[in-house]
Design a protein that fits this description.
binds magnesium ion; Substrate Binding Domain Of Dnak, Chain:A, Domain 2; Substrate Binding Domain Of DNAk, Chain A, domain 1; binds adenosine-5'-diphosphate; Nucleotidyltransferase, domain 5; six-stranded mixed sheet
Length: 623
């Protein structure tokens, strides 16, 4: 979503002067592109391919030769056929992730992985390269291409990322840009970029679905434009579903078993079917998975049948984001097609039926994200009016409180940039520090959420429990990076942390956490209630015991007996899981000790009045 803010007092000439040479980059899992705004028209920058054609697509593939040289794009794909272990594709799946995060996909990669829980690296011979370095090679290649076309150094870039990318993945993508010598003006959500390319931000209002089926991933998002502000309302998809799966499904259906040659033949046939009603599938005997030559003519309807289960998966994800955004398909104002796989008429037919409308596909779905990034770069580079872009937080963010329960400060799908603050009180007497544990997730208990960071606020002077008041502030900037600060209100003591975790969370994990949060919602709520009531009970029991020790003389026999009964009862129920019984026990103890509390208060008042004139006392009481 966009917010148009014009900058008053700046002439067009001044604007032209401060205009920077900027580009937009779609850093894709399979293919990457670079674009810029040329004479007010966004365009992608193409280059000649080895087969004599021109193409704007650069395969996101990097080949590391044994002699140390590095090759990017089509040449790397070609080199990779003979040296798959030295060729890295799909680095986007690994960026900003730890080994555990990528366990599920590690076995399907042709290269070996190393690393730890914080970050993965790829083993190339003796070398270890990080996914950030691989992405930086792709970015450097695009930068060179852009500098040749623009005739000078690139001064700023907008790079697109999937809407669901978390802090670590965004940070790693930014780092890749920096490593490639680029100034990253902003990271932009891919669906938002697509909508920008269509100029949908210029409408007065509207709600759009973005259906993005690429090479290895499927993303679906809901965008909403209200009064010039364009928001990502919800995102979903499947990180292991894309054109590659379509290729495998076709190859399996035709050959019975698959190998690289069969998959390549399937891909050729699939892409040919986009422009023709039928296409031939051919594998020679020497590379065939069956040992015999296979030739067959495939029709669109053959393929539509084979890939139906894959497309059904996308339908389920699409329905789910509609539900998340609280929308019915007929409330949408448009559906945008993104990703190479949506060029297929079989996929288009499916999307049309799914949403019950003709999808927007006038702009090449391969290029639409890069074109939108170029539009945004132009804006940030000073070429057009200032625009503020907003995105959403994929999972709720909160802090752990006593008893392990989570207090959410920022809820899932909140528009960024955003901020929230909340005040917490100290739990124990004379507490001089406050540990702040930041977690992300939908569950009610901290242990079931993902731990993002911990930090401490120290040096608070000793105070009675409940007197220390700590204000915690969460701020998420336009790139989705979180900053947390804490301030003790009485003293002004402050501490803060920028949350830049060095590893990410897979979207399966995000998905699982969401499923869990629904499944366990009732149990979680109950556990949370028990934890909250138990803490309160323990606090009251301790305070009462201490007061009795100090001021036994203020107790009458009746009150002492009633308090003892109430305390014994509360101690009994406190260990159990009936939170209403604990809450009632607390109330009963309060009631039983009320005369005692009053006696203590009266005595404190007497003490403060002693030796003072009456008007002093009145002042004290009133202040
Ligand atoms: P990513 O966003 O993952 O980098 P792309 O959007 O570039 O991926 O999509 C790549 C996928 O698009 C590949 O699976 C490729 O086979 C598929 N694709 C490209 N052109 C066509 C076409 N004409 N018909 C069908 N699929 C296509
Ligand atoms: Mg893409």
């Amino acid at each position: 979503m966009l917010l148009q803010i014009s900058e008053p007092g700046q002439s067009l000439a001044e604007k032209a002067e401060c205009k920077k040479r900027v580009v937009g980059i779609d850093l894709g899992t399979t293919n990457s592109l670079v674009g810029y705004v040329k004479d007010a028209t966004p365009t992608v920058i193409a280059a000649a391919t080895p087969d004599g054609a021109t193409s704007a697509l650069v395969p996101s593939v990097v080949y590391y030769a044994a002699d140390g040289s590095v090759t990017v794009g089509r040449a790397a794909v070609a080199a990779g056929r003979s040296a798959p272990a030295r060729t890295v594709a799909s680095a986007k799946r690994l960026i900003g992730r730890g080994l555990d995060d990528v366990k599920a996909i590690a076995s399907s990669l042709p290269y070996a992985l190393g690393g730890d829980a914080q970050s993965v690296h790829i083993k190339i011979g003796e070398r270890a390269v990080s996914p950030v370095e691989v992405s930086a090679e792709v970015l450097r290649h695009l930068r060179t291409r852009a500098e040749q076309a623009l005739g000078g150094p690139v001064e700023g870039v907008v790079i697109t990322v999937p809407a669901y990318f978390d802090d670590a993945q965004r940070q790693a993508t930014r780092d890749a840009g920096r490593l490639a010598g680029l100034e990253v003006l902003r990271l932009l959500a891919e669906p938002t970029a697509a909508a920008l390319a269509y100029g949908l931000d210029r409408g007065s209002r509207g709600t759009y679905a973005v259906y993005d089926l690429g090479g290895g991933t499927f993303d679906v998002s809901i965008l909403k434009l209200v009064d010039g502000v364009f928001e990502v309302k919800a995102t979903g998809g499947d990180s292991a579903l894309g054109g590659d799966d379509i290729d495998r499904a076709i190859a399996t259906a035709v050959c019975g078993s698959i190998n690289a040659a069969a998959v390549a033949a399937a891909r050729d046939a699939k892409e040919a079917l986009t422009d023709a009603e039928s296409a031939s599938f051919a594998v020679a005997a020497d590379v065939s998975p069956t040992g015999a030559a296979i030739t067959r003519t495939l029709s669109r309807s053959d393929v539509a049948g084979w890939i139906a289960p894959l497309l059904d998966k996308t339908a389920r994800a699409a329905r789910r984001v509609l539900k998340d955004a609280d929308l019915a398909a007929d409330q949408l104002d448009g559906v945008i097609l993104v990703g190479g796989s949506t060029r297929s008429p079989m996929v288009r037919d499916f999307v049309r039926a799914l949403f019950g409308r003709e999808p927007l596909c006038d702009i090449d779905p391969d290029q639409v994200v890069a074109l939108g990034a170029a539009v945004q770069a132009e804006v940030l580079g000073g070429g057009v009016q200032q625009v503020v872009l907003l995105d959403v937080v994929p999972l709720s963010l909160g802090v752990e409180m006593m008893g392990g329960v989570v207090e959410k400060l920022i809820h899932r799908n909140t528009t960024i940039p955003c901020g929230a603050n909340q005040t917490f009180t100290t739990y124990a007497d004379n507490q001089t520090g406050f540990d702040i544990h930041i977690v992300q997730g939908e569950r009610e208990t901290a242990s079931a959420c993902r731990s993002l960071a911990r930090f401490a606020l120290r040096g608070i002077p000793p105070m009675v429990a409940g007197m220390g008041r700590v204000e915690i502030t969460f701020m998420i900037d336009a790139d989705g990076l979180l900053n947390v600060s804490a301030k003790e209100i009485n003293t002004g003591i402050e501490a803060s942390i920028a949350v830049k975790p060095s590893y990410g969370l897979s979207d399966e994990q995000v998905e699982q956490m969401l499923v869990d949060s629904f499944e366990y919602a009732e149990q979680d709520l109950h556990d949370r209630n028990v934890a909250v009531e138990r803490i309160e009970a323990e606090r009251i029991l301790a305070a009462t015991k201490r007061a009795i020790e100090l001021d036994d003389g203020l107790l009458t026999d009746d009150v002492r007996a009633a308090a003892a009964v109430a305390m014994a009862h509360l101690e009994g129920v406190c260990g159990g899981s009936d939170y209403l019984a604990i809450r009632n026990g607390v109330a009963a103890l309060d009631l039983a000790t009320k005369p005692f509390a009053q006696a203590r208060m009266n005595r404190a008042l007497d003490a403060s009045m002693r030796g003072k004139r009456l008007d002093d006392v009145e002042q004290n009481v009133n202040s």
